[in-house]
Write a structure and sequence with these properties.
It is a single chain. This protein has about 450 residues and is an alpha/beta fold. It folds into 4 domains: about 5-125, 3-Layer(aba) Sandwich (Rossmann fold); about 145-260, Transcription Regulator spoIIAA (2-Layer Sandwich); about 260-380, 2-Layer Sandwich (Transcription Regulator spoIIAA); about 385-439, Beta Barrel (OB fold (Dihydrolipoamide Acetyltransferase, E2P)), CATH 2.40.50. It is built from 15 helices and 21 strands. The strands form 6 sheets. It has a 6-stranded parallel β-sheet with strand order 2-1-3-4-5-6. Strands 17-18-19-21-20 form a 5-stranded mixed beta barrel. Helix 10 (about 220-225) runs parallel beside helix 11 (about 245-255), helix 11 runs parallel beside helix 13 (about 285-295) and helix 14 packs parallel to helix 15 (about 355-380). It binds 5'-deoxyadenosine (5AD) and iron/sulfur cluster. 5'-deoxyadenosine binds near residues 306 and 337. Monomer. It is found in: Cytoplasm. Keywords: 4Fe-4S, Cytoplasm, Iron, Iron-sulfur, Metal-binding, S-adenosyl-L-methionine, Transferase, tRNA processing.
Length: about 450
């Protein structure tokens, strides 16, 4: 048997990319590749890129520059660029970095094995199509190796919302849902490998609509079906748009024990004028009313959100409305960003807020969000919580797990307990984690 070839994958961006990278590794497994965690000595380097942050493409070009000496030392080294920068830049990548052998968009990566086999025979290949065939059908399953107890499972991709700041509808394409059967089969496969928590992924995951026995299924029905799998203990989903939170999904937060009490529900801003300019298609009051209904179904739910400050046209008064909304919701955790233009999106050509003003608003918003996060974490101190143990911690004898509310929790425990849900008493709160002891 020949030596396995080494594949180094560097993943940028969201959890959907983490999932896609896993699938690409298993697809290339059929070509004799095994994953390695350094680019040194690799036979193939694949960058799975993200386009959401500022200067994303430029960062990829400079990363590719770093691999030039590798290619000089080993002319057989294969270099690929996948993901959303690949989709957005296409041929341009080959023009600027001729050493790149293939460029593959997020909807075409099931064609990777074939593309890989043609490297050297044809010139650099670019595939940024949105093919009619389903990439998930084409990806081979790897051997039934044990896996970490918590796994991602993509159920939906793409976005039809066209928020004025966002590239996702252009790079990932229209909303598409995977079939119920495919998802259930993958969930069973994960559980057989030791997975006890599944995080259902989609750019607009709550817009999921599959069909089962000829009937339409929403995300809530899918979650209820997954909850019937005995060995599966925890279900989560991310990311959701407020306008797709239907009654059934809200109800599921109240009546489905395995659905965790945590919801990432980005609002982006608190001013109706800004929400309209962002094309979010809801007001602040509608969002707050939705939060009230979700809390009525599951009073202890932890909420998380995304915010953009300094969107074109945002005044100090508009920004104050964002702070007010945060004070009203009291997020357990949140992500906040300064607006930065993405070429090709509607907001990119508008008049921008001054950079110093953006920095100031971001600092004030983050101070408030951190205060709320600390208060929420402090409210856990002294309580006993179920924690799913996931991996060893930094210190010897320490393990890290997750609370139902998605807090990272560390405690002294044995590595044999990976995958177990233990009861732990919270001792104190740190910046982004809880310290606990097993009871
Ligand atoms: N500028 C700043 N933040 C952005 N996001 C998306 N596009 C931009 C942009 N152009 C943020 C949004 C989104 C999160 C994933 O990234 O808050 O919810
Ligand atoms: Fe982007 Fe999310 Fe808006 Fe879709 S809903 S355009 S993914 S921010």
């Amino acid at each position: 048997m020949s030596e396995p070839k080494k594949l180094f994958v560097k993943t940028y961006g969201c959890q959907m990319n983490v999932y896609d990278s896993e699938r690409m590794v298993s697809a290339l497994g059929g070509q004799g590749y095994v994953e390695t965690d350094t680019p040194e000595g690799a036979d193939m380097i694949l960058l799975n890129t993200c386009h959401i942050r500022e200067k994303a493409a430029e960062k990829i070009y400079s990363e590719l520059g770093r691999y030039k000496p590798f290619k000089a030392a080993n002319p057989d080294l294969k270099i690929g660029v996948a993901g959303c920068v690949a989709q957005a830049e296409g041929e341009e990548i080959i023009r600027r970095q001729p050493m790149v052998d293939l460029v593959v968009g997020p909807q075409a990566y099931h064609r990777l094995p074939e593309m890989e086999s043609k490297i050297g025979q044809v010139k650099a290949q670019v595939d940024t199509e949105f093919p009619a065939e389903d990439k998930f059908d084409h990806l081979p399953r790897g051997p039934k190796a044990r896996r970490a107890p918590s796994a991602f499972l993509t159920v939906q991709e793409g976005c039809d919302k066209f928020c004025a700041f966002c590239v996702v509808p252009y790079t990932r394409g229209a909303e598409v849902s995977r079939s119920v059967e495919q998802i259930l089969a993958e969930a069973h496969d994960l559980v057989e490998r030791g997975v006890v928590e599944i995080n259902l992924l989609g750019q607009n995951v709550n817009a999921y609509h599959g069909t089962h026995d000829g009937r339409e299924w929403g995300l809530a029905q899918l979650i209820r079906e997954l909850a019937k799998i005995d060995e599966l203990k925890r279900i989560r989903f991310t990311t959701s748009h407020p306008n797709d939170m239907d009654d059934d999904l809200i109800a599921a937060h109240g009546d489905c024990d395995k659905l965790m009490p945590y919801l990432h529900l980005p609002v982006q801003a608190g001013s109706d004028k800004v929400l309209k300019a962002m094309n979010r298609k809801h007001t602040a009051a509608e969002y707050l009313a939705l939060i009230e209904r979700i809390r009525a179904a599951r009073p202890d739910i932890a909420l998380s959100g995304d915010f953009i400050v300094g969107f074109p046209g945002e005044t100090e008064e508009d920004f104050q409305a964002t702070l007010d909304l945060c004070r009203e919701v009291r997020y357990g955790q949140a992500y906040s960003f300064k607006y930065s233009p993405r070429p090709g999106t509607p907001a990119a050509d508008r008049t921008h807020v001054d950079e110093a003003e953006k920095n100031d608003r971001l600092a004030r918003l983050q101070a408030l969000l951190s205060q709320h996060q600390a208060e929420f974490q402090n409210s856990m101190v002294g309580k006993t919580l179920p924690v799913l143990l996931e991996k060893p911690g930094r210190n010897p004898g320490q393990m890290i797990g997750k609370s139902e509310f998605l807090h990272a929790v560390h405690m002294d425990a044995s590595p044999d307990q990976v995958g177990k849900i233990v009861q732990a008493k919270v001792l104190w709160s740190e910046r982004n984690s809880l310290a606990a002891e097993l009871i």
